[in-house]
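Thread: Newbie trying to understand structure tokens

Hi all, I'm a second-year student working on a class project, and my supervisor (Dr. K.) asked me to get a predicted structure for one chain before our next meeting. I've only ever worked with sequences, so writing a 3D structure as a token string is new to me. If someone could post the tokens and maybe explain what I'm looking at, I'd be very grateful. Here's the chain:
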Amino acid sequence: MQTRLFDYDLPPELIAQEPIEPRDAARMLVADGDAAPSHRHVRDLPSLLRRGDLLVVNRTKVFPARLFGHKATGGEIEVLLIHPEQDHGTQADASILWRALVRGRVHEDTELTFPGGLPKGSFATVLAVHDDGTRTVEFPPGTDVMALAERIGHVPLPPYIMRPDCAGDRDRYQTVFADAVGAVAAPTAGLHLTTELLACLSAMGVGLARVDLSIGPGTFKPVDTIEIEDFRIHSERCACPRETVDAITSCRAAGGRVIAVGTTVVRTLETAAAQPGGLAPFSGWTGIFLHPPSTLGAIDGLLTNFHLPRSSLLMLVSCLTGIERLHELYAIAIAERYRFFSYGDSMLVLKHA
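---
Reply by user tm_fold:
Sure, no problem. This is what the structure looks like when written as tokens:
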């Protein structure tokens, strides 16, 4: 399948630079089966969901993963922490080894320092340069890297938000239910949900279940091959716990609908459902690439933001809508001046009954 099928033209002024307030005031394009789309707001979810439905959210929490510093030789660098290193094969304490992206000319053994973060005279060291462009960075022994990031780090806003992060982003680029630290990008569909809206849905009998997918920077990488099948998608660590599997099983048995809040939830649930015995608890890395002609059997609906052209996220959504319908919905959203991407508006896609 040709990647160009997932191109579309977006006026740059529709790329949201700031979040809307309150969260659930975001607009929501509703696509219910083949019916004509309707224009609603996220706060209208109680009128679109029903007793017995189940919302599944991604509980991952964004941490301030961007660190600014310089090389020991004086050149400026920027480090984006991705995740603690796995199986590096050294004798170093694993808690001080991190896989990272580094902006600046660095090679193995380059020493890095972060003003206000490391003691004077202490350096982090680039231990390895990997084929995918990432680096393994070793921090000084005894460094609490997460605490260092919380102290001097910056919120890793997406590259299409053309402004520096501010203090308000620490709260706003985070869901109200985030409690599992580890992501460098927010599960953006979940940004629209408020505590009050979730309480209202709970009171009317809509369930809530959680998965955890630690979103990495690969989520922003466009599919850069001519044919989709040749693309090597990023991998991310995810977990679907037993209680979520049980909630989905109970929901389906009672005739309810499983509504994923975001593409990362879909990625996690489809990974858990792809096990030999079907849907079961899962914890590990997923490199699942969902694109046509894949079908999404783990969900009955999806609340999602509008995604970048040629992105794997756009391809995932098309597994639910079909490619032609997807382009129809995006054309409507553009014509109606919806706001796009991470701080933008949303779309609710429901399968036929």
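A couple of things are worth pointing out once you decode it. Helices lie at 45-48, 145-152, 169-172, 195-203, 242-253, 263-273, 312-321, 323-335. The chain has a mean pLDDT of 95. Feel free to ask follow-ups in this thread.
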